[in-house]
Inverse folding.
C-alpha cells in the first residue's frame, strides 16, 4: 500500500483531501494526515477570534471521515527525507512514500529586540486565544499597538474596534499609505474607515524595539498596554531546519511540479512554498490543485506536462468589522456592505464544501 502523508490540516491539504476523497484515490494509496489539532482551523478568521467577535467553534471545520484516511495527532519534531519518515514528539514516527508539507508559518520579527517576548500573535489558534485573553481583559482606556498594516493587521484593528469601543488602537504601517500596492481608492476607503472609527494609523513607521508596555518607533517611545505583531511571517521552524533552498522570504524553493528539487516525492504547499505571490489561503488551494494533478499522473506512471499552467489568483477580500469590507477582484475594487457580504458568502461556501 502506497502511503501519502499530509503534514498540516491547513487550506492546501484540505483541498487535496477534497479532491482525492472519496472517489479519486487509487486503490493502492492510503492517506495519513498529521496535525496538532483535531480540526481544520479557518486561519483567515483568527483576527476575529483574537478580537472577541467570533467564537472559536465558528472557525473550526471537521476533517473528513473516510476509511482511506487516517489522522495522527501530535507535534512534528523533524522531517527525515533520507529515510522517508516524519518524527513526532514522544518518539513516534510516520513513514511515507509521498509527502506534502503544509505546516504553515510563524511570525517573523526581523531581528527587532523584544518583539517575540512582548507581543501577541494571531498565527495559530492557540496564540489567537492568548491574544483574545489579553486584549479583551484590558481595562477601559488601554492602548493597543498593532504592528503591521497588511490584511491581518487591518482586519484585527477594525474587528477590535468593533469589539472594544473603549480601547485606544494604534496601527503601525511601514508604508506611506494603507495597502500601498493596491489602488489608491482602496487605500483611501480603508483609511477613512479608520479615521471615522478612531483608529490611529501611524504611517512610515519603523518599530526598532518592543518592551513591556512600550513601543519604539524610530526615535519615539510610545506607551502601550498590549502589542500584537502582524508584520511578517516565515515557514515554521521544522521546515526551516530542513536546510532546503529558499527564497528571500524564507519559503522553500520548489519546481513547477510543486516538489522540492531532486526529490519528486516531497511536495510543499501554502505558506512554506516559494511563489511570486504572497502567502494566502487562495494560493495554497491553487497549489494543492497542481499537486493533486501531479500525484495522479505519477501514480499512473504517466508523463508530466512539459509546462504547468501558471497559477492565477482572483484577488482578495478584507473585512472592516462585521458590516463593512473591501474586495479587489479582477483589477476592480468593491467596498462597503456588499464587499463584506461577499466575504461572508465565500466563508459560508468554504465551510459547506469542506465541513
Amino acid at each position: 500500500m502506497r502511503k501519502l502523508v499530509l503534514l498540516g490540516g491547513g487550506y492546501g491539504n484540505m483541498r487535496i483531501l477534497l479532491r482525492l476523497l472519496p472517489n479519486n484515490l487509487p486503490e493502492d494509496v492510503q492517506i495519513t494526515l498529521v496535525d496538532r489539532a483535531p480540526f481544520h482551523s479557518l486561519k483567515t478568521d483568527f483576527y476575529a477570534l483574537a478580537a472577541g467577535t467570533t467564537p472559536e467553534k465558528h472557525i473550526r471545520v471537521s476533517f473528513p471521515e473516510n476509511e482511506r484516511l487516517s489522522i495522527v495527532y501530535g507535534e512534528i519534531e523533524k522531517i527525515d527525507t533520507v529515510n522517508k519518515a516524519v518524527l513526532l514528539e514522544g518518539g513516534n514516527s510516520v513513514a511515507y512514500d509521498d509527502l506534502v508539507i503544509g505546516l504553515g508559518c510563524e511570525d517573523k520579527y526581523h531581528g527587532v529586540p523584544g518583539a517575540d517576548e512582548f507581543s501577541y500573535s494571531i498565527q495559530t489558534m492557540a496564540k489567537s486565544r492568548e491574544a483574545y485573553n489579553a486584549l479583551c481583559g484590558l481595562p477601559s482606556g488601554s492602548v493597543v499597538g498593532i504592528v503591521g498594516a497588511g490584511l491581518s493587521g487591518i482586519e484585527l484593528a477594525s474587528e477590535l474596534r468593533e469589539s472594544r469601543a473603549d480601547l485606544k488602537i494604534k496601527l503601525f504601517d511601514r508604508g506611506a499609505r494603507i495597502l500601498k500596492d493596491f489602488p489608491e481608492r482602496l487605500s483611501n476607503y480603508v483609511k477613512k474607515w479608520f479615521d471615522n472609527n478612531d483608529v490611529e494609523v501611524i504611517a512610515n513607521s519603523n518599530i526598532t524595539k518592543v518592551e513591556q508596555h512600550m513601543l519604539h518607533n524610530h526615535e519615539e517611545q510610545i506607551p502601550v498596554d498590549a502589542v500584537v505583531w502582524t508584520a511578517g511571517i516565515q515557514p515554521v521552524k521544522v521546515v526551516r531546519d530542513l536546510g532546503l533552498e529558499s527564497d528571500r522570504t524564507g519559503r522553500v524553493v520548489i519546481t513547477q511540479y510543486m516538489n522540492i528539487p531532486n526529490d519528486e516525492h516531497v511536495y510543499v504547499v501554502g505558506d512554506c512554498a516559494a511563489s511570486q505571490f504572497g502567502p494566502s489561503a487562495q494560493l495554497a488551494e491553487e497549489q494543492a490543485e497542481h499537486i493533486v494533478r501531479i500525484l495522479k499522473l505519477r501514480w499512473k506512471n504517466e508523463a508530466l506536462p512539459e509546462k504547468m499552467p501558471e497559477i492565477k489568483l482572483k484577488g482578495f477580500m478584507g473585512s472592516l468589522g462585521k458590516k463593512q469590507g473591501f474586495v479587489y477582484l479582477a483589477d476592480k475594487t468593491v467596498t462597503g456592505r456588499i464587499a463584506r457580504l461577499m466575504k461572508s458568502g465565500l466563508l459560508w461556501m468554504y465551510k459547506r464544501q469542506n465541513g
